[in-house]
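Case study 2.
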Amino acid sequence: MKVFNRRDTDVDWQLLSHASVSYFMDVRPLVQIGKLELRRYSAVYVFKDKEDGSYSDEVVFNCAP
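Prediction:
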């Protein structure tokens, strides 16, 4: 599965990881230390190195310092 992320300041989706297990944790620091940040995630299934199917619904997390 490919996991994509878009932060508050991002215009486009960025490939975050090729997750091979169902548990995934984004441990990147906040863009601006001490400032609240919204992070949006979406994923797509990968089969034989090719994206297969539709992208998941967007999930939004509120990351606080």
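The mean pLDDT is 89.
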